[in-house]
Design a protein that fits this description.
Elements: E1 4-8, H1 9-19, E2 25-27, H2 34-43, E3 47-49, H3 53-67, E4 71-75, H4 79-83, H5 85-94, E5 98-104, H6 121-124, E6 130-133, H7 140-152, E7 159-164, H8 165-169, E8 171-175, H9 189-201, E9 205-209, H10 211-215, H11 219-229, E10 233-235, H12 255-261, E11 264-268, E12 285-289, H13 310-318, H14 328-350, H15 358-368, E13 374-378, H16 381-389, E14 398-399, H17 410-420, E15 426-431, H18 432-438, H19 442-447, E16 453-458, H20 463-473, H21 487-493, E17 497-501, H22 507-516, E18 521-526
Parallel strand pairs: 2-3, 2-4, 4-5, 5-7, 6-7, 9-10, 9-11, 11-12, 13-14, 13-15, 15-16, 16-18, 17-18
Antiparallel strand pairs: 1-8
Helix pairs in contact: 1-2, 1-7, 3-5, 3-17, 9-13, 11-13, 14-15, 15-16, 15-22
The protein binds thiamine diphosphate and magnesium ion (MG).
Length: about 550
């Protein structure tokens, strides 16, 4: 006989959440969701709270991204849920298995004008894999299981449930949820063989690997496939660091020559979107390897596009026994371009200038970051530089907002990262504009004993908008911020610490102090507003 669980809706939800590996909730208080708090409180299940619901969802997303298991945000009815929609949408674009449990005005009074009464489901349906209202207390464990199964099935993504007040507050006695069963998407073996034959036989093949390779836990298989077929690998998103920077097949700087000259480009676990020039790689044939048929590009003619579990596909590529062209000359040529690019970067990262340029900040950061440090980008140009100058030494350590490009992930991602790794360095690279979206949550971090380092590239402008507007119109509006603001004092006022840095020689010692502080610490670096990220060369 199935084990029974009894209690109010919060207890029933928690039992199902735990069965799927959820180990904490991120939330901002609201009476509609009190039973979920009560269940967590009684069970000693950690509750982290924030100052804006976007941070709760971003924190849940960071947990999902870093740990490849569901992240949970609990949001109160109405504005709590609507404040979380940018986070849900980011999770949708990033294939992150996030579950949002929303409160909901009582069903028995629906339409009478209860406080915070709105039907959330139509609002979130376009950006979730599963969205539903739970109509009875006894249905809660089954609905949570359904939502989490959808979130964890490739192509992964967020799910949403709302619980009417009386459904969540009532009690029931129901069967405990069984062990999770996540379906595996089987690829078509013929398409996999075709892809392997093309790649192995190509003269100048290239692999670009992205977030789903990490999300699908296929990093080792990617490495094995690249090594077996001897193909240079570039990465983006959570794929960064898949091959360690010193690996003979790991490339980052030689992307332009690689994509201009390649005859076959295999893009694995990432869409053919703006980050990849929409998948137009000159004369190269494109192989798009995706984790589910829904992810095949509709706007590009591909040579073949195997869809299914990435571990299975990459293992099959590694085991390919057909003809293999010799790629050593191709790899040597790219290595020369890579080394030249690295030398240029090293020069920029060491350059003295007054005011400081972002490149120098990253030069100094590289000296103090441990190989397992988690770095988080939230901003415009300042984060483009981070992508270029920081080289993750291992996968699962770089969090960018992904292709939805939403500003404001910073403090939420930092909270999720700190909860995931209590002892690692967690470093947020933040534009001064981006700071406005989430910096108040430095209070949440300080209050709950979650130290992180925040490095603000403070150019006094919305740089990524100001420079292009100037270039387009010869003037700009709505692109200025107050120059020289002391964002460090904001964090001090909120229970953390910080300092302002104006000279490059002060950067190293300030970063050392920041990582030793044991509280949220903001290093406010005044940077050159004239410095614009060279967009034409930005393929990332
Ligand atoms: C929520 C949201 N609002 C607006 C934008 C548009 N946007 C993209 S980058 C950017 C400028 C960011 O400025 P800042 O954080 O100061 O970084 P900088 O470019 O100056 O280094 C803006 C406004 C966005 N991506 N997301
Ligand atoms: Mg700025």
């Amino acid at each position: 006989m199935a084990e029974m669980i009894e209690g109010h809706g919060g207890d029933l939800a928690l039992a199902a959440l735990r069965a799927y590996g959820v180990t904490e909730m991120f939330t901002l208080s609201g009476g509609h969701v009190f039973p979920l708090y009560d269940a967590a409180h009684k069970a000693g299940f950690p509750i982290y709270d924030v100052r804006h619901e976007q941070s709760a969802v971003f924190a849940a997303e960071a947990v999902a991204k870093l740990q490849r298991r569901p992240g949970l945000a609990v949001l109160t009815a109405g504005p709590g849920v609507t404040n979380g929609i940018s986070g849900l949408t980011s999770a949708f674009f990033n294939a992150s298995p996030v579950l949002v449990l929303g409160g909901r005005a009582p069903a028995f009074r629906w339409g009478s004008g209860s406080l915070q009464e709105i039907d959330h489901v139509p609002l979130v349906t376009p950006v979730t894999k599963y969205a539903a209202t739970v109509t009875g207390t006894e249905e809660i464990p089954g609905e949570v299981a359904k939502a989490l199964t959808a979130a964890l099935t490739a192509h992964r993504g967020p799910a949403f449930l709302d619980l009417p007040l009386e459904v969540l507050f009532s009690s029931e006695d129901v069967a405990a949820p069984g062990a999770p069963e996540i379906p595996v998407v089987q690829p078509d073996p013929e398409q996999v063989t075709q892809a392997a034959t093309l790649l192995a036989g190509a003269e100048r093949p290239v692999i670009i690997a992205g977030s789903d390779v990490w999300g699908g836990d296929a990093i080792a298989e990617l490495r094995a496939a690249a090594e077996a077929l001897q193909i240079p690998v570039f990465t983006n998103g959570m794929g960064r660091g898949a091959l360690p920077p010193g690996h003979p097949l790991a490339f980052a700087k030689a992307r332009r020559p690689a994509l201009n000259e390649a005859d076959v480009v295999a893009v694995i676990g990432t869409p053919l979107d703006f980050r990849l020039g929409f998948g137009e790689f000159g004369a190269a044939q494109v192989v798009h390897i995706v984790d589910a048929p829904s992810q095949r590009a509709g706007h590009v003619e591909t040579a073949v596009s195997p869809a299914g579990d990435l571990r299975l596909i990459l293992t099959a590529l590694a085991g390919h026994s057909g003809r293999r062209a010799d790629h050593s000359e191709w790899i040597e040529g790219l290595r020369a371009a890579e080394d030249a690019g690295k030398a240029r970067d090293a020069e920029a990262m060491a350059a003295e200038s007054d005011p400081i340029k972002p490149a120098r900040i990253y030069g100094e950061l590289r000296k103090v970051l441990a190989p397992d440090a988690v770095t988080i980008g939230d901003g415009g140009d300042f984060v483009s530089y981070a992508g270029r100058f920081l080289e993750p030494a291992q996968p699962g350590t770089w969090l960018d907002p992904g292709p939805y490009g939403c500003l404001g992930t910073g403090m939420g991602y930092a909270m999720g990262a700190r909860v995931t790794y209590p002892d690692r360095q967690i470093c947020v690279l933040m534009g001064d504009g981006a700071a406005g979206f989430s910096l108040m949550d430095a209070e949440s971090l300080a209050r709950q004993g979650l130290p992180v380092v925040i490095v603000v590239g403070n150019n006094g402008i919305w740089g990524l908008e100001k420079h292009p507007m100037q270039a387009m119109y010869g003037y700009d509006v709505a692109a200025d911020l107050q120059p020289g603001l002391h964002y460090d004092r904001v964090v001090q006022a909120l229970g953390g610490a910080g300092e302002t840095v104006e000279k490059s020689s002060e950067l190293g010692p300030a970063l050392e102090r920041a990582f030793d502080a044991g509280v949220p610490y903001l290093v406010n670096v005044l940077t050159d507003p004239a410095d614009a990220y060279p967009r034409s060369s930005n393929l990332a």
